[in-house]
Amino acid sequence: MGTQLGEQLTTAGSQVAALRRNPSQLPSTFTRLAVDLLQPTPDTLPEVDAMVVTLAPTMQDPAGGNGYLVALQHLAQAMPSIPARVVFVSSTRVFEGQTAPRPLAEEDSVAPASQRGETLVAGEHLAVKLFGAHIMRPAGIYGPGREMLIRKVFGQKPVQYERQTNRIHQTDLVRALYAMITLDEPPKVVHASDQAPGALLGDVVKYIATRLKVPPPPALEPSNSGGRILSGDRLSTLVGALTYPTYREGYDSIIDAREP
Length: 260
Fold this sequence. Notes:
four-stranded parallel beta sheet; 260 residues; two-stranded parallel sheet
């Protein structure tokens, strides 16, 4: 995701610096920086106009702290100044405890129900405190290389047919991040969710199975009708028509690319 965004920025004429523990696989058009944010960064990082922060909430701090938050603090300490625009990529998992039957919008209160959900919420708060960050909350990200449901269909792994799901194709997420760092006044919080909010997982896997010409996977028992519906209206206002407005167009593209 970050690499795809960086490539779009370099194509548009921007200079891109990218941080990774091992940056050797990053494009040579980037300024590649070997940085482990779980450790204090000895050198000051480059001054930049905009910054996108993508961290894994499962990061483990060897010192015993919350790696997600420690990484953010080390990043802030290493920056020579706060960039004019910072976008922090969180997740719609911050709503995992929400039970509202209506689509959830950006103004709705978060409701974490697990340690990971609470970590994500804490990360959002810290990113706003340290950087004045804008928050991007992707729903389930899918696309080339992110093909978990296709593997489940091929492997006939049981799935929860009645679960409400939300997703965003990686291409549209990158478009949204590009808009967030280049527009003059982007929203402070955006849900990256496509125009098929709350799609039943059973409908999605049956569609994939039909396209792959294989039987749909079995339904997981007992049936559970959990999940949430997320509004993608603000995302549509931000980027206009999505490249992949629903899972149908998105999986069509992935499956067509797999076929000889």
